[in-house]
């Protein structure tokens, strides 16, 4: 009996020692150099819950502010089961963005993208799909093909909203985006399939920055189910079209190298995963940013007035009031562009450079170890030396700036380096055309609208705009009343 208790005591002691050793190792990760200051939080969970607390979109999270005060602009932590370095040092963010090409995503997000995804598979495949994407979404293509489609969709949805008296900005923007991309990729779709594709996004859980446990009841499980459903739908449409010889959209023709001077061929599976990535990123960024922008506009009557003037002028300049928008019209929306830049500056309160360091990286006395996730925040957007009164929403500050560039020494809303956003021009175009059509009506945003961030943008009270009765603006004589 005594032997049994001795054995039990030994086993328990061993477990306790192993546990303490594991906790010690968790808190003090082994590296080849000195780690940036910080703490790793609780084992596995790390600081995830504190990091994910919702916060005002125009402020950095308290989690970040407190740690910057305690440790300085570069610190270590642990999020979603991964070791992470958070940096608010602009120069370092740029250096890491240029020197590393591996995206800094959690395991749950890599599951979502798929392990064969060409955007993440290898340096070569990444380069290849980036080039391809520029053919699809670069200014040349937008100019030739996209303005008209986005214009028609935005006009149609806005008319429908005005008839109903209200419209949810985020949801409408998402519909425009998905319909527009779906048509470009797959050509005309059977109405049922198109409807189901749009519906898939409804099943898609909002907060996809999660722990990676794929077990029933978790967000990742629901996410993977939604992913499977979408991929199946896209694949079925593609295969059906191939078999029947029906025409694909221009994107798919480019993807399969069927057009003049086209790119290398890729498998159907690769192509579908690539298209899916596109839909996913596009849908998770632009609609939220657009809704936040509309909220900022509605909170600033002087901005509203200036936008009204700009869009009235465009409509008045047309021989026919209902004539479609042209590339030149879009390019003439200078103040709208300034509003979009300013909105992106001030709402960039989540990291805009996300990388996984592929080699140890020396920063002064500290080492950022290989394999850690690097999250670079756009602190520079709030630097008073770069932006006067940085917390103010002031589109006029962009008056003499180059609005053609999406990256500068004080602007990284679309990231930087080898993974600089490839959809930026398309996002700006979509936002500007949406704003144009909104200003053809008399509208206001619901008072209770709030914009929060929990890594992604959140609208707990929705993002509805209301149209007033007899809402249409008569641009030749001002408002009808
Ligand atoms: C206002 C809307 C958008 C914002 C704020 C935004 C922002 C970003 C940011 C910060 C990155 C990461 C860059 C880095 O890590 O350095 C990124 C990458 C990316 N974005 Fe966007 N994005 C937007 C819209 C879009 C749209 C509409 C699309 C597609 C149609 C898109 C496609 C992509 C892709 C594919 C990447 C990964 C690029 C790569 O890995 O090479 N984005 N975006």
From TrEMBL:
It is a single-pass membrane protein. Keywords: Heme, Iron, Membrane, Metal-binding, Monooxygenase, Oxidoreductase, Transmembrane, Transmembrane helix. Pfam families: p450. It comes from the Eukaryota. Belongs to the cytochrome P450 family. Its main location: membrane. It is found in: Membrane. The keyword Nucleus does not apply. CDD domains: CYP90-like. PANTHER family: CYTOCHROME P450 26, CYTOCHROME P450 FAMILY PROTEIN-RELATED. InterPro entries: Cyt_P450 (IPR001128), Cyt_P450_CS (IPR017972), Cyt_P450_E_grp-I (IPR002401), Cyt_P450_sf (IPR036396). The chain crosses the membrane at residues 7-24. Gene3D superfamilies: Cytochrome P450. This is Cytochrome P450 708A2-like. The keyword Oxidoreductase applies. The gene is LOC104732117. Coiled coil: none annotated.
